[in-house]
# Entry
Amino acid sequence: MARRSTPEVNAGSLADIAFLLLIFFLVTTTIETDSGISRKLPPMQDENVEPPIIKEKNIFKVIVNRNNDLLVEDELMELKDLREAAVAFLDNGGGVGPEACDYCQGSGDPTSSDNPIKAVIMLVNDRQTEYGTYIAVQNELVGAYNELRDRTAQRLYGKSFTQMEADYNSVNYTGNKDRLKEQIEEVKDMWPQKLSEADPKN
Amino acid sequence: MAKFNKKKGSELPAINTSALPDIVFMLLFFFMVATTMRETTLKVQNTLPYADQVEKLDKKDLVMYIYAGKPSSRFQQNFGTEARIQLNDNFAEVTDIQQFIYAERETKREELVPFLTTALKVDHETNMGLVSDIKMELRKAEALKINYTTRSGKASQNFD
# Structure
């Protein structure tokens, strides 16, 4: 019997098969990561713990009612003005003596907050409030803190707070990370995010 | 002289495509590695609100997802239009959340448990009542790190 050579396999459709797979993975790929507002919930409290006493003037009350209206310090307000109002409250620095704030640039109104360390923003919302509104309000309040932290970081370290945090998380950062961490903590301590949320009312 | 004119056709030489599969395979492998399959099928409407003061949520393996919103149109006949919670692939009650958190913790290595974050993917039309209930359950389960997942955009877009 004559020796026959094996016929060559036709590889012409290999590219087609590869393309098919490629398109499948192209469609199912999601490269982008989620992003959002990070918050820390308060731990559960014992029933019999006395709540600390906070002076009325150190509380900035933000109420969102069931019609998604914004009530700031008992006055109706548009969302676009909220950040400015929150900044003015936190930056006020009306305290004297041991409660004075040497890095505040606010008006020093004695009826507003003493010191950013004492200032508390209280957010009350209704059970019927829409989540979108709630997030918008949260966003503005976090934005107010970020604005002030940026300002202080810029003054002390010559770069914005967001940049410092980005550097800290970046693998390509060449500077001293421990020092950067300390600086971040320092700015955070100067403007602590004291955002208290009450249980919603009906 | 006909001998020299033999090859003088007007057609272009064919391009050699034998390296095409290699290129395609290279791309294929890239996308295969970069792909993360969507693990859960959404049963609720999930139009996220907008925000611009956002932080990125890295380390996807350390994130637990809780979805909430109105049931999608094909589930509305059975489940109504009231906003519901979805855990993994199923509708759930508020009371199921603690169990869900504990079950998720079981699947992670012990030293990573403190870094677990709960991502709340809540539809922008949901009432805060439900969100507060979810947060209460998370506090009871001591899953205190949360992230309200949003789309990037101005906060004022939430009112459009």
Summary: The two ends of chain B are 81 Å apart (CA to CA).
